[in-house]
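2024-03-11 09:14:02 DEBUG pipeline.ingest accepted 1 chain
2024-03-11 09:14:02 DEBUG pipeline.ingest length=218
2024-03-11 09:14:03 DEBUG pipeline.predict start
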Amino acid sequence: MAKITAIETLKKDPTRVSIYLDGQFAFEMAGIVAAWLQPGQELDQAKISSLQADDLRERAYQQALAFLSYRTRSEAEIRQHLRKRKIAPDLIEHTLDRLRASRLADDSQFARAWVENRSTFRPRGRRALSWELKRKGIAADTAESALAGLDEDALAREAGLKKAGRLVDLEWDEFRAKLTGFLARRGFSYPVIAGAVSRLWDETHAGRHTADDNEDVQ
């Protein structure tokens, strides 16, 4: 048995503490793991090993939380991040279990948020969104659920509106070719593109046709 003689907060990281046993530094650990410890307590080797194992789990969890602090992540992204940090596979799965329990790791929610964000700020077609979700490690059925009800016609119009405005001086054939290529690169299907291109041509040229007609009358 070894007696705890001091517990000191690390200056370089206030979330961690140094544990001194019998007057000598023994190990450091997360403050939350050591919260119940106090000087005078005695620890056997089994308890020390248990505390160190708890600390490894807590460190993995805190690294995952730091990774999630920037934006939501898919489970595959979290797993890959922890692998790069040399976290053991069993600790990664334990961490993911904790994150799922607190809804911080939820691929269904992540996929829905990804589609919603893209649709609002950078509209993409179903094909492009499916590919993006696959790259994030989202299962096919989860991605399909997130894409259900996607209004590609509306998204194609929104995606092409600004581009169409820049092409307004072109003749129909060139306007159609350039806008078609633009929308195809954003993952829209050709039937959706054809409808969007026609509508955008009409919208961007409606005022011009009226002005030309008025000039002809004068």
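2024-03-11 09:14:41 DEBUG pipeline.report The chain has a mean pLDDT of 93.
2024-03-11 09:14:41 DEBUG pipeline.predict end
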